[in-house]
Amino acid sequence: MSAANFVTAADAMDGWRDDVLSGRPPTLYPLGTGPLARIEVGPGLVTLLGGAPGAGKTAFTMQCVVDALRLTPALRILVCNTEMPPGVLLDRQLARLSGIDLTDIRYRRLGAAHADRVDRGIATLADVADRLAFVRPPFDLGNVAAAADAVGADLVVLAYIQRIAPPGQHADRRGSVDACMSHLRRFADAGTAVVVVSAVGRSKDGQGRNSYAGEGLNLASFRESSELEFGADDAFILAPDPDAVEDAIVLKHLKARNGEALDLRLSFDRRRQQFTAAAAAADPVAAGRRRKLSSTLAGLWDRTPAAAAAAGEEDA
Predict the structure, then answer these.
(1) How does DSSP classify residue 233?
(2) 33-40: long-range contacts, CB 8 A cutoff, minimum separation 24
(3) pLDDT, position 201
(4) ∠124-129-135 over CA atoms, to 5°?
(5) CA geometry: angle at 238 spanning 176 and 173, to 5°?
(6) Cis omega (within 30 of 0) for bond into 160
(7) What's the pLDDT tens digit per position in 137-161?
(8) Torsion angle of C-alpha atoms 137, 79, 252, 280, degrees rounded to 10
(9) Low-confidence residues of the chain, pLDDT below 70?
(10) pTM, to two decimals
(11) pLDDT score for 211
(12) CB contact set of 220 (below 8 Å; sequence gap of 6+)
């Protein structure tokens, strides 16, 4: 057997030992601050994101893209979005960064009252514009790879993978997605960070009905191919939070190849296309449970001899 077909543990340990003792952590590109900084995106990693129609996948992805550029000044990102042209994506980010309703931006209903906020939002986007590029059609992996090389992209974002054609001929959509994910894994192995956005299928809810309910969304929900979840290092699904108020979203962390899977609770302001980490204290269900527990404990205390004695002392 040729030695080129394997490496002994003794040989592998030389470089591995030096790496462990170097004290250098892996390179990661933070996508936000606070809890959002826990999402690992970096060279050699494929991160998979899914969600039901209207869950905010594009808004969340582009928020992460712009904030990653702001937090890592040397980072360069290429976005391949098969559904929305660059102008529409930038409209949404302007809404988030300016705090102006997206409808007013979309229909260009902007006046003097908006001027300062519009200027600040545009200035923020201008600061990162030379490090952000968008793929033009055709939306195939060959074109994506050529564009990534041309712009020197450190991170490539693809939405949606089901609409991006891999090289070669494939019998069906499943085979095409399998091949696409296999090629993206090679992108990552070459040192590129990859974020893949995927459609999901309906799952059975608690009543056995086909729906996009968050409780039923899991790794099997990614459409077309098990290769998606197999090839990803981390897999997430945006799903409505069934235990909270409207616009509360759970970023379900379904797979974590290199660490612990931790769900994130988010709030989605649809008018301004902004996701924020939900504060634990703001969860009305949790707060209600705490109030109920406090009330129960207070009732039990009132029935104890010690409480009766304390009440007698107060009356005296």
Answers:
(1) S
(2) 33/67, 33/71, 34/277, 35/264, 35/277, 36/64, 36/67, 36/264, 36/275, 36/277, 38/262, 38/264, 39/64, 39/234, 39/236, 39/264, 40/233, 40/234, 40/258, 40/259
(3) 77
(4) 135
(5) 10
(6) yes
(7) 999 999 999 999 999 999 999 999 9
(8) -140
(9) 1-3, 202-216, 224-225, 243-245, 280-316
(10) 0.83
(11) 55
(12) 203, 226, 229
Backbone φ, ψ for residue 25 (5° rounding): -75, 165
Pairing of strands 193-199, 210-211: unpaired
DSSP assignment of 96-155, as one string? HHHT--HHHHHTT---GGGHHHHHHHHHHHHHHGGGEEEPPSS-BHHHHHHHHHHHT-SE
pLDDT digits (tens, 9 = 90+) for 258-293: 999 999 999 999 999 999 998 754 444 444 444 455
At 282 the pLDDT is 43
Q: Return the DSSP state at 28.
A: -
Question: What pLDDT score was predicted for residue 286?
Answer: 47
Q: Residue 205, Cα to own-chain centre: how many angstroms? A: 23
Instruction: Match domain 23-280 to its CATH number in 3.20.20.390, 3.40.390.10, 3.40.50.300, 3.40.50.2000.
Output: 3.40.50.300
Tokens of 293: 């527990």
Of 119, 121, 113, 114, nearest to 97 by C-alpha is 121
| Residue 266: C-alpha distances to residues 91, 241, 275 (Å) | 22, 9, 6
239 strand-pairing partners: 250
Give the separation between CA 203 and CA 277, rounded to whole angstroms: 26
Pick from 56, 60, 35, 67: nearest CA to 279: 35
∠ Cα 44 262 214 (to 5°): 105
- The answer to whether residues 135 and 79 touch, using CB atoms and an 8 Å cutoff, is yes
Q: Is 222 exposed, middle or buried (0-12, 13-18, 19+ CB in 10 A)?
A: buried
- State the Cα–Cα distance between residues 148 and 153, nearest whole angstrom: 5
Residues recorded for the chain: 316
Residues 6+ apart with CB under 8 A from 183: 141, 166, 167
